[in-house]
Every structure is written in C-alpha cells, then in structure tokens.
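In the lab's daily routine, each protein ends up as an entry in a very long ledger. A line of letters takes care of the sequence, but it says nothing directly about the fold. The fold becomes a row of whole numbers, each drawn from a learned catalogue of backbone shapes. The protein below has been through that process, and both of its lines are reproduced in full:
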Amino acid sequence: MNTVFAPKPSLASAPAPSNFRLLTEAERRASLQSAMARWQPDQDVWVYGYGSLIWRPEFDYTEKRLALLHGYHRALCLWSRVNRGTPDRPGLVFGLDTGGSCRGMAFRIPAHQVPASMEALWKREMPSGAYLPRWINCRTDQGTLTALTFAMNRHTDAYVRGLSTDHLAHIVQNAHGSYGPCVEYVLETANALRQCNIQDKRLQALVRRLQQH
C-alpha cells in the first residue's frame, strides 16, 4: 500500500516582498491625530491589549483590568514583516479579527502621560497601517469602559486567515524580526494569557504543536 505524505507547508500565501511599504512619518502622525481627535487633555485613556501588550505594554499605567469585548476575536491574522518577521520571510502576530469575542487586558494611562504614550504606541503598532485604531466598549468586573485598541485591517495584503495549525506552526517557527523570534512572541502571549486565566483554545493547540519540536 502506498503511503501518502502531507505536503510541507509553504509561504506561498504570504504577500510579495515588493508590496511592503512602511507608513511615512506624516501618515503615521495623521493616523494618530485622527484617532485621538476625541481626546481631551484632562482625560485618562484606556488601552485594550490582546497580544503582546498584555505582557509588554511599554507604557506606564495606573490601573489594569481584565476586559471582554464583543464583535472581535484574537487571531494570528497579521503578516509581520518588521517586528516578528521580514518582507522575505514574514512572521505572524495577533490581530483583532471580526466576529466573536475576546478576553484581554485594559490599561489606564494617566492624562498627563497620554501624548508621549500614544506617540510611542503608534510607532510600535502602526508601522505599516495594517491595524485600524478603534474605540471599543469593554466589559470589566468594575463596569463597562471605552478603550482604544488596534483591530485588523482586512483590506490590506497583511491580512491572512484560514491557515491550519500546522501551517501556522511552520511560519511561526521560521520567522524572526527586529523584536526577536516569532515563536517567542507566540509563547510569551500564551503564557501571559494563562497567567491571567484567559482561555484561548486555538492558541493552546498551536502551543502544543510548537512544543512537539
């Protein structure tokens, strides 16, 4: 009897390196100004984290709360061509994709630190415009709050979906960017969620697959 082996996953679905473009400084600043147009200088700002912001926020905050938002779910749906990959060998990072719900962490930034914190956050999260800044209502044990978060822009070549666990694992294991290995990013996020008692079954399945190597 002939044995049929599954083909090795490839990066055929990744975007062409020549298509990648960083936002200009003017474009990134315009995005920041548009998102913060509703903010008043005496207001604290809540930021909702669902991936690396949970374990490495890189801004000072006065309070954090477990938070649930509806209408989006956490997914490895963003090709990372800077932070956790390169244009030639992109990695994958989490985005908020439409549908379902997501448990994460909301951080409260004091008003006087908002301008500097947002400037740094935009440099980190918006190098290419693959995310869409959104103000979204989140439920916490202390009540509902409105937080700034970064949702996936489905209308860019950075958006990816429908990959199997094996394909995800292959990409994650082989990508490395300016922030370090993609696998480190995925495992750190999984560990942070576990410490917060946040269940993410698909991520847990991916971690089990990664740990087999």
Observations:
- The first strand starts at residue 45 and ends at 49.
